Amino acid sequence: MKTYWQRLAIITLMGLAVILFAFFLYWFFWRAFFAPPEITPPVTTTTPGQLTGAGEAGVRPISTSTLGQLIEATSTPTTITTEISEVANGGLTRTEAFVKDPTLFSAMTSGGQINYLNTKDGKFYRIGADGQAVALSDQTFFGASSVFWDGAGDRATIEFRDGSNIVYDFATKKQVVLPAHWEDLKITSNGDSIAFKNMAYDVENRYLAVSKFDGSQPKIIESIGANADKVQINWSPNNQVVAQYVEGKDSSRSEVYFVGQNKENFRSMVVQGRGFEGKWSPSGNYMLYSTYDVNDNYRPSLWISAASGENIGASRNPIAIKTFVDKCTFAEDRFVICGAPEEMPAGAGLNRSEADKVQDNIWLIDLATGNTRMIAKPQGARTVENIMYSSSNPGKIFFSEKNDNRIYQINLP
Predict the structure, then answer these.
(1) What's the rounded Cα separation, in Å, for the pair 200 and 66?
(2) pTM score, whole prediction
(3) Measured distance CA(254)–CA(271) in Å, rounded
(4) Are the CB atoms for 123 and 104 separated by under 8 Å?
(5) Which DSSP symbol is given to 16?
(6) Residue ranges per domain, the chain?
(7) How far apart are CA 396 and CA 387, in angstroms?
(8) Which pLDDT score is estimated for 59?
């Protein structure tokens, strides 16, 4: 009898041990440590092609600005003509070289001047409305592969083809050398901080991070591991959002996550298509973005969406212009100016070089009404790389040309 109870006890203990061991395996290896947040898409009702208010933006008044009058003007009849207009009115428009030397990394400053790298002498220059270019420094920057400016145009992050990185302060003529494994450097509009990808040799040590502009006080934001290519560093105007993380949701849609500095649980945004690239409006309330869609022969097209707080993903609407978002600029929260190919080639979203062979026209978009208008066909069959506009010089549009790298200007009415 004693032997029977001993055997029963041993069997019972073994059974309990198996159960405890199985629970141990589940608890420490298989269960999810963090449950994904439940995302409830905001419900909105919008008029197609029209952007409604987000947050404090509210209802937009009728514009009396030059751009508002220009987009409301009667379009020029679409007849073939060789007559060149002195100002943008919807047809062939005089296009003059503003900077005749080849340039790279041009950007409009908050003061209405243009910064650029002269590729002939390797120096950075600033040019104002008077057309006089002034060297920002005597130092040369040959081999620069990526440059990102602050809003004032006084500081820039500069990455070089040899892998070295610096932050240069053109106001003080001082530079700070940053670690070579810091990549995709982006400085904030106020010039105080930078964001970067810490691309360590070991995948598990790769992070999205921020620091002071001089590289001090680095702080890890998120682990990115093998997903660095899905992270787009893109500071919001208030510096609360550092980047967007983009991943495919299904065969025809992508999901965009907004990554904050302090682990904020922002809403995500589901977008149609792939190849998402976004550009913030000046207020930070909206995001203009481009994606390409298999159902449209992989041709990139523009969309607009609310992108602030609880409104992220709301009021999402397509814009009837096929182009890449980096060929656009916000003139103000309401108006966007874009360069767009006369005919966007099929597959350009997958192979952008196809679009570089096509002449661009200049378009004006009114986000309040959804109206779009071609305002100029640049003289000389130009392809826009970067378009620039400043309210301090409202009579002109500037753009850097993709093929000859000069900066051109077009007069507005």
Answers:
(1) 50
(2) 0.83
(3) 5
(4) no
(5) H
(6) 143-232
(7) 11
(8) 38
